[in-house]
Amino acid sequence: MRNHRTNSYLDGDTALFLFPFNYCEPGDLTEKFLSSKGLYLSSSASLRLQLFPAVEACQKLGLKIKVLSLRSEKPAQLDLLGTPKVCFIGKVASDKPFLSRIVMANLAAIARLKRRKVPIIVVYSDNWCEASEWPNPNGNDEWSDSRKEWLLSSQSFYRDLLYLADLVVAPCLKAYELAKPWFSKNGLGCVIEDPLQVKKQPFLENDLSNECKLIWFGHFSNIRFLLDLLPSIVRQCTISNRYELTILSGTDAFLEVQTLMNSLNFSKTWSLRFRDWFNNEDWDPSFLEQQLSRSHISIVPSDINNLRKIGVSHNRVSDSLQCGCIVVASPMPSYTELSRVVLVGDNLPKLINYATSNYAKLTQQFDLYRNEELSRFQPLTNRLKWEKCIINILNLEKNIKERSN
Description:
Layout: E1 2-3, E2 8-9, E3 14-18, E4 27-28, H1 30-34, H2 45-60, E5 64-69, E6 86-89, H3 96-115, E7 120-123, H4 145-164, E8 167-170, H5 173-179, E9 188-191, E10 211-217, H6 223-236, E11 242-249, H7 251-262, E12 269-276, H8 285-293, E13 297-300, H9 315-322, E14 326-329, H10 333-336, E15 343-344, H11 348-357, H12 359-374, H13 379-404
Parallel strand pairs: 3-5, 3-6, 6-7, 7-8, 8-9, 10-11, 10-13, 11-12, 13-14, 14-15
Antiparallel strand pairs: 1-2, 4-5
Helix pairs in contact: 2-13, 3-4, 6-7, 6-11
């Protein structure tokens, strides 16, 4: 039944989702989140790839969904918590002015839920527990004092979250290994890989000696890795007569690439193509699918020594491969897992040349193993893993309650 005074479900058949972010007013977001494609799916990969699949799994298990965003300026909203069956906590998305309010409200909510013996599931997709050691993406040795304070606050919050969690879910093995030192003695963890967002497409059959179409896609936080690589790509990649580079990201990322490209000298013809990925009102996976399926090679650069990125998930590589791109990627642990169907290494310009020269042979080879390698990223597989982990944590919590009575 409903408690009309607090307007919250108290019958124990609800899955509660706490979204610790500041780009909406705090309060009950359930109706907005569950409408059509979901209000925030277009702007947040962590919601699309991790929490929304968990929502679907809860619905399949017969649980009602409740979504709250809490901040300390509205403390009465703690009364909206009720006593749900399980509580999920998503990725922090907060600027410095709001972070302390979000931390205070969510830790208070977790304390209340723990007293009520509600199991807490935390999704850990970035290495926030080591945030104070993250390198500055601008290349400076030191963060500003205000930025350092924000990183330390975020780091402390995540260390608290992982310690208080009954279950931590990571999208890859490396992210799980990074999270595990911060578990409590009784804390559990598991890996649920990000699901594919696109439908399977064939590899193209072009001869790349005339034209090679490259693509880079992702969030602005990853653009530095491409910028560091571009001068050597332009200088060393000369197998094809003409190169096209698509940037599928936000305007800021494209302007950074455009500025750099304008300063470079070319021995071959290069064209730059931009498609805005983040300003669409409704994020549509077919748009990503369209841009990847017209490309020959997807470039996924990163930095194996970067503590923020070391636990990166497979999703950009797996989606590229699903859409028929040869993937050239830095040797991150999750990418290396797919080395049977992905070109992984430190020298990406050399790998691009190799892929361009051997395109037909490589696409035939990768197509043989693609289904097998991508089977663990299928949306149904992902949802069944979520269902299993939810059932397991609820049964475990039931046993604990029975022993304590």
